[in-house]
């Protein structure tokens, strides 16, 4: 991820990271069995990044246009309490999150990959696109990850936020004890 001072300064005050699901936490593929059951592949590195971010005091939420039981299951396993699925208008969920957590838009980062994410991305301090995002989304982002969605992009963002908030080194050192 190419960093600049504006992104690092914005990241210092982030108290909430909002993630899209398809194309960000997953590779964007939609997998169905013969009975219509949906499957998604999540990255373990992304999951541990989310756990470390939460443990450092940054809330994590998802806002997804689609609804899938496997997403609820994965987020439950990661301790993510703020899960908004089936949100065709993601701004409604975003505004609800701000009220619920008593936060301002300048305390929020959002990671997206497609144009449906732009209405929220345009409102937050730190809009981030994954490497495989639509070009228009990248154009309207402050940062673009080096990794693609579902392949470590979220971990990259988590590590960036932890580093900007001077929490990364202590967290990493704790694994060497």
Task: Please give a structural write-up.
The protein has 177 residues and is an alpha/beta fold. The protein has one domain (5-172): HAD superfamily/HAD-like (Rossmann fold, 3-Layer(aba) Sandwich). The chain has helices at 5-12, 44-55, 69-78, 90-101, 118-121, 135-139, 153-164, 168-174, and strands spanning 16-19, 31-32, 38-39, 59-63, 82-84, 108-112, 126-129, 143-144. The protein has a 6-stranded parallel sheet. The protein starts with a helix and ends with a helix. The relative contact order is 0.21. The mean pLDDT is 95.
Structural class: alpha/beta
CATH H-level superfamily? HAD superfamily/HAD-like
CATH topology (level 3) name: Rossmann fold
The neighbouring-strand order within the major sheet is: 5-4-1-6-7-8
Biggest pleated sheet: 6 strands, parallel
Helical proportion, percent range: 25-40%
Cα(first) to Cα(last) distance is 29 Å
CATH architecture: 3-Layer(aba) Sandwich
Topology order in helix (H) and strand (E) letters: HEEEHEHEHEHEHEHH
Number of DSSP strand runs = 8
Calculate Rg over CA atoms: 15 Å
Low-confidence runs (pLDDT<50, min 5 residues)? none
Task: Name the beta content range.
Answer: 15-25%
CATH class: Alpha Beta
Overall number of domains: 1
Individual helix count: 8
Shape: globular
Integer average pLDDT? 95
């Amino acid at each position: 991820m190419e960093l600049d001072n504006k992104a690092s300064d914005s990241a210092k005050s982030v108290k909430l990271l909002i993630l899209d699901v398809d194309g960000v936490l997953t590779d964007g593929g939609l997998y169905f069995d013969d009975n219509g059951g949906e499957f998604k592949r999540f990255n373990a590195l992304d999951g541990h990044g989310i756990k470390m971010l939460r443990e450092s005091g940054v809330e994590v939420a998802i806002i997804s246009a689609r609804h899938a039981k496997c997403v609820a299951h994965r987020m439950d396993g990661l301790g993510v309490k703020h899960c908004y699925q089936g949100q065709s208008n993601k701004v409604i969920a975003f505004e609800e999150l701000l009220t619920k957590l008593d936060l301002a838009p300048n305390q929020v980062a959002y990671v997206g990959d497609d144009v449906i994410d732009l209405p929220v991305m345009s409102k937050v301090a730190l809009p981030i696109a994954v490497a495989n995002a639509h070009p228009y989304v990248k154009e309207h982002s402050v940062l673009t990850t080096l990794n693609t969605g579902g392949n470590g992009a979220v971990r990259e963002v988590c590590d960036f936020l932890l580093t900007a908030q001077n929490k990364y080194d202590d967290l990493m050192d704790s694994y060497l004890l």
